[in-house]
Design a protein that fits this description.
Helix 2 packs antiparallel against helix 3, helix 8 (about 265-275) runs antiparallel to helix 9 and helix 14 (about 390-415) runs antiparallel to helix 15 (about 420-440). Strand 10 (about 375-380) and strand 11 (about 380-385) form a beta hairpin. This protein is about 45% helix and about 15% strand. It is α+β, with helices and mostly antiparallel strands. The protein is elongated. The chain has 5 domains: about 1-200; about 230-325; about 330-360 and about 380-460, no CATH class; about 515-740, P-loop containing nucleotide triphosphate hydrolases (Rossmann fold, 3-Layer(aba) Sandwich), CATH 3.40.50.300; about 745-815, Arc Repressor Mutant, subunit A, CATH 1.10.10. It is built from 29 helices and 28 strands.
Length: about 850
C-alpha cells in the first residue's frame, strides 16, 4: 500500500486491481449504453444529479433492509472524461461504494436483486439500450477484481469521487455531506480498499434466516460449479474441441429462443452443439437451460461428458440464432465483422475474401478447387451453386453494404467524434479506403478475383464425401425427417443433405386427403394382405440408407398389373432419392477398371434404384449383383471426374415380365434374391377375381398422392419396420424357390430326384451321378451334363459332408427317389466324365 501511495504522490499512472476476500464492502458498477443524440457533435451525458440521488436513495433503502446500521455514507464516483462512443453506441457509467457496509457476497447478491426491481422507476428516462441485468454488473461482487482508487484501465481515466451522500435508515433521508468529507487520494485509497475490511456489518435479526438460506443456496451452487470445473478439467483439450471466439458463441446462445429448451430433443441438441464447439461451454449450456421451468440442477454436468461428438457445430448454432432472432443476429455478426473489415483496408483480394469468408463461412462451401464446385446452404439443404453465382451477387449487395456502413461510421467519427486533428485525419483516410473497396465490389473483374481467393478459404476437402452420407436422414422441402429418432425438424448445415424428396413432410393421419384412394390402389395391385403388407413395409425400409438385408428384389408379372405405377408412385414420393440403373449394368460384363461408371457415381446417396425389363435371353452378372447389394464400399467415376469411393445406400429392384437367367448355384446369390409376383390385371371389363377396372387417368393422380403416400410409408417405417423388421410371406419364398429351381438345375435335380430317408439310408455318388444323367435326358433339361466332380461339389453343399464307404463317396440319410423308371445311363445327352 505504501508503494501505491508513493506512486500516487509522484503523479504516476497506476493500473492496480484488488482481489475479493470472503467479506468486503458494498460495491456497485452501473454500465450505461444508449443511442447517440444526432443533434450533438460529441456524446452527451444523459444522467443528472437527480438521477444519482434517486439511485442512491434506492441503493440505501435496499442495503438498510439487510444491514443493521443506522447511517452510512454512499460515495459516488464518475469519470471526468464523460461518455465515449463505441461503434454505433454511447457508453457511460457510475460507481457507488459504501465502505462502511461490509458483508459476504450472498448479502450483496440479495441487495442487487432488490435494486434491480426498483431500477426501471429510477433509470427509465435514460432510454438505455442494454438490459438492467447488464447495467448492474454482477461480476464485481466476487468474481472480477476491483480497481483501486485512482487506478484505471490502460487508455482510460480513473473514476473519481464527485459526491458523498449520507443515508439515514430510520427515516430514509439522504443528505449531501461532500463538503464535510476528506477526499484526498491518500485517505480514499485506504478507505476504498476492499482488502483491509475485517469486521462484518451485523445483519438485521428479521432478515437473518433469509440470508442464511441464501448462503446455503450459494454453497450448493459453488459445489455444482466445482463439479462443472472437474468435468471440464477432465476433458481432453484439443484443437477440435476449442473455439477461438467464445464471446460470439455466448452471444449467439443468448439470443436463442427459450422454446429450444422446452422439448428434451431440442435441449439436448443445444448441449450437443455447444459441446462440439468448445468443451468449456458447459456453464453456457447450464445458463441457457435455466431459462426453462423444466431445468434440473446437475443434469447438464452429468450429461456433458457423454455428449456425442461430431455433427452439430458452429454452422448449426448460427442457423438457430439467425432463425430465432434475425435482427439481434445481424447486430452480433456486424459487430464481430467490424474488426475483419478494418484489417482489409489494404484492399488486397485475399483480405477482402477473408471478410467474405467471415460473413458466409456457414452458408457456402467450395467442394473442389479443380472444378470450382460450390454449394450454398438454404431451405434446409445444400444446393449446387454454379460458379458461386449467388455469392458473387452478395459481393455487390450485402458485402458492399457492410463496407459502406463501416465507411459511414468513420465519416461520422471524423465529423462529430475526436477533436484531435490526427484522429480526424485517420478517420477520413479510413472512410475513403472503405468507400473505394465498396465501389470495386460492383465491378466484374474485382469480383472474379475475390471469388478466386474465396475458393481456398471456403474449401472443404471432404465435403462431397460427406454429402448425403447420413443413412437416417431424409430431406423434404419444409425440413428434414430423422428416421432414427422418428422426428421432423429443420435442416442444418451439419446434416450434409443436398437431396430432397421434392415434397413437404405431412404428419400421418388416417384423415389425410387421398389416403383412402392410395390404400384402395394397393389393395388392388396386391390383393393378398400378407404380400401387400410385405411390399409396403419393404418400401418403407427403402427410406433408410441402411442395407442390412442385402436383397436383390425382382418384381414380375405380365401386362397391366400395376407394378410400374406402384414404382412410379414411389419414385414421385422419394424425388431425388431414387435413380434408374440401365439393365445392362447387371447383364453385361464388368466395365474396365479405368472406364467411367457414371450411373453408379450418380447413385451415391440414393435410396432406391430401379432396373427395367431385360431381354428374355439375358443373364444376370452375379459378380456385380453381389457387389451392388453387399453393402461394401464401391468405387465409381463420373465422366471427366476423379473416382469416388462410397458406401451404397440404394436398395435395388428389377421390374420384368420375364425372369432373367441367374447363372449361379451358390447360396450367396439366392440368399439375396426375392421375387414378388404381381398377379392382378387392370382391364376395361373385369371378369375374374384378380381383375380390376383400369383407370386410364391414374398416372395423372400420382402427384396428388405422393405426399400422403410418403406419410404412410414413414408410419410403416415407425410402426412396422423399425419394431418388427420384415417378415417375408410364404408366397414370396415359394416364388423365389421356384425361380431358383428354374435357374439352378442342381437344386431342381435334388428337389426332383433325391429324397431324405432314415439315417441308415445311403446315397452313393456313383448312383447319384447316373440318376443326374438320366434326369437331364428324360426331362429334356437344356444343359450339358457337368463333370462328376462338379455334381459332387454341389451335393456336398446341399446334403452335407459325405463319407467314404467301399471306395465310393456316400451321403447318409438320403436316397434316389423312385420316379418309376429306375436309373438310366443310356446315351443321348452330352456329358463330361
Amino acid at each position: 500500500m505504501m508503494l501505491y501511495k508513493s506512486a500516487l504522490a509522484k503523479g504516476e499512472d497506476v493500473y492496480i486491481t484488488e482481489k475479493h476476500r470472503t467479506i468486503g464492502p458494498m460495491l456497485v458498477d452501473l454500465d450505461f449504453r444508449f443511442d447517440p443524440v444526432e443533434s450533438h457533435e460529441k456524446p452527451v451525458r444523459t444522467y443528472t444529479t437527480a438521477t444519482i440521488d434517486a439511485f442512491a436513495n434506492l441503493l440505501g433503502s435496499c442495503v438498510s433492509h439487510y444491514a443493521d446500521k443506522e447511517t452510512f455514507d454512499i460515495f459516488v464516483l464518475e469519470k471526468p472524461s464523460g461518455p465515449t462512443s463505441i461503434k454505433s453506441l454511447v457508453k457511460d457509467g457510475l460507481h457507488f461504494q459504501i465502505p462502511d457496509i461490509v458483508t459476504r457476497p450472498g448479502v450483496q447478491y440479495m441487495v442487487r436483486a432488490d435494486v434491480l426491481k426498483g431500477m426501471p422507476a429510477v433509470l427509465d428516462h435514460l432510454n438505455l439500450v442494454n438490459r438492467y441485468e447488464d447495467v448492474l454488473d454482477e461480476s464485481i461482487i466476487e468474481r472480477n477484481n476491483w480497481l483501486m482508487y485512482m487506478s484505471k484501465k490502460p487508455g482510460s481515466c480513473p473514476y473519481l469521487v464527485t459526491r458523498v451522500l449520507r443515508y439515514r435508515a430510520s427515516d430514509k433521508v439522504l443528505q449531501d455531506v461532500t463538503a464535510d468529507t476528506q477526499l484526498d487520494a491518500q485517505s480514499l485509497t485506504d478507505r476504498f480498499s476492499i482488502r483491509n475490511k475485517f469486521e462484518e456489518t451485523p445483519i438485521r435479526e428479521e432478515r437473518l434466516n433469509d440470508v442464511i438460506d441464501h448462503e446455503q443456496q450459494m454453497q450448493e451452487k459453488r459445489k455444482r460449479r466445482e463439479l462443472v470445473q472437474t468435468v471440464l478439467t477432465n476433458q481432453p483439450v484439443t484443437s477440435n474441441n476449442m473455439c477461438e471466439n467464445l464471446e460470439v458463441v455466448c452471444k449467439l446462445v443468448d439470443i436463442l429462443d427459450a422454446s429450444r429448451g422446452e422439448s428434451y430433443n431440442d435441449w439436448v441438441r443445444v448441449g450437443w452443439c455447444l459441446r462440439n464447439i468448445d468443451h468449456r461451454l458447459l456453464d453456457k449450456w447450464i445458463e441457457f437451460s435455466r431459462r426453462s421451468p423444466k431445468y434440473v440442477e446437475g443434469e447438464c454436468a452429468r450429461m456433458w461428458t457423454h455428449m456425442r461428438m461430431g455433427g452439430l457445430g458452429m454452422g448449426t448454432l448460427h442457423m438457430w440464432a439467425r432463425t430465432d432472432s434475425p435482427e439481434r443476429y445481424r447486430e452480433i455478426v456486424r459487430s464481430d465483422l467490424a474488426d475483419s473489415i478494418s484489417k482489409s483496408v489494404s484492399g488486397t483480394h485475399y483480405d477482402i475474401a477473408r471478410v467474405v469468408h467471415h460473413m458466409y463461412r456457414y452458408e457456402y462451401v467450395c467442394a473442389s478447387l479443380r472444378n470450382r464446385t460450390w454449394y450454398e446452404f438454404r431451405n434446409h439443404r445444400w444446393h449446387y451453386s454454379d460458379s458461386a453465382c449467388s455469392l458473387r451477387k452478395r459481393l455487390s449487395t450485402d458485402v458492399f453494404n457492410e463496407y459502406a456502413q463501416c465507411a459511414l461510421y468513420h465519416q461520422h467519427k471524423a465529423v462529430n467524434g475526436d477533436s484531435e486533428q490526427e484522429a480526424q485525419k485517420r478517420n477520413v483516410e479510413m472512410c475513403n479506403k472503405l468507400n473505394a473497396i465498396a465501389l470495386k465490389l460492383k465491378t466484374t473483374n474485382f469480383k472474379d478475383n475475390i471469388i478466386k481467393e474465396c475458393c481456398e478459404l471456403f474449401y472443404h476437402e471432404k465435403f462431397e464425401e460427406k454429402l448425403d452420407s447420413n443413412c437416417g436422414l431424409m430431406g423434404f422441402l419444409n425440413g428434414v425427417y430423422d428416421l432414427e429418432n422418428s422426428e421432423f425438424r429443420e435442416g442444418r448445415p451439419d446434416d450434409y443433405i443436398s437431396y430432397t424428396t421434392g415434397i413437404n413432410y405431412v404428419p400421418f393421419s388416417e384423415d389425410l386427403p387421398q389416403l383412402a384412394n392410395i390404400k384402395r390402389f394397393w389393395s388392388q395391385v396386391l390383393p393378398k394382405d400378407d404380400i401387400r403388407e410385405y411390399v409396403l413395409t419393404l418400401l418403407s425400409s427403402f427410406l433408410s440408407g441402411h442395407t442390412r438385408e442385402e436383397r436383390f428384389h425382382i418384381w414380375t408379372g405380365s401386362g397391366c398389373n400395376g407394378k410400374s405405377l406402384s414404382v412410379e408412385l414411389f419414385d414421385k414420393a422419394l424425388g431425388d432419392y431414387t435413380c434408374k440403373f440401365p439393365v445392362t449394368l447387371l447383364t453385361q460384363k464388368r466395365a474396365a477398371s479405368n472406364a467411367a461408371t457414371s450411373e453408379i457415381a450418380r447413385a451415391k446417396g440414393r435410396r432406391f434404384a430401379c432396373l427395367q425389363e431385360p431381354s428374355e435371353d439375358e443373364r444376370l452378372n452375379i459378380g456385380l449383383l453381389k457387389e451392388l447389394t453387399g453393402g461394401d464400399k464401391v468405387q465409381a467415376r463420373a465422366l471427366y471426374k476423379e473416382p469416388v469411393e462410397f458406401k451404397p445406400q440404394w436398395h435395388i429392384a428389377l421390374l420384368c415380365n420375364h425372369l432373367p437367367h441367374v447363372p449361379s448355384d451358390d447360396g450367396g446369390t439366392w440368399r439375396r434374391i426375392r421375387v414378388v409376383e404381381f398377379t392382378s390385371k387392370f382391364v376395361e371389363f373385369p371378369k375374374n377375381a384378380n381383375e380390376f377396372p383400369i383407370d386410364l387417368e391414374l398416372s395423372e393422380k400420382l402427384d396428388e398422392w405422393k405426399e400422403p403416400f410418403m406419410s404412410l410409408l414413414i408410419e410403416y417405417y415407425k410402426t412396422r419396420y423399425a419394431k418388427k423388421k420384415i417378415k417375408e410371406p410364404d408366397a414370396v419364398l415359394a416364388c423365389t424357390r421356384e425361380y431358383q429351381k428354374n435357374n439352378d438345375h442342381f437344386a431342381d435335380f435334388v428337389d426332383t430326384c433325391i429324397e431324405k430317408t432314415s439315417p441308415s439310408g445311403v446315397l452313393r455318388m456313383s448312383d447319384a451321378f447316373l440318376e443326374f444323367r438320366s434326369w437331364v435326358k428324360d426331362d429334356n433339361i437344356p444343359i450339358r451334363v457337368p463333370k462328376k466332380k462338379d455334381v459332387q461339389k454341389y451335393l456336398d453343399r446341399a446334403l452335407g459332408k459325405p463319407s467314404m464307404e467301399n471306395g465310393d463317396v456316400c451321403y447318409r440319410g438320403f436316397s434316389v427317389r423312385d420316379r418309376g423308371g429306375g436309373f438310366s445311363n443310356k446315351g443321348g445327352a452330352d456329358y463330361d466324365d
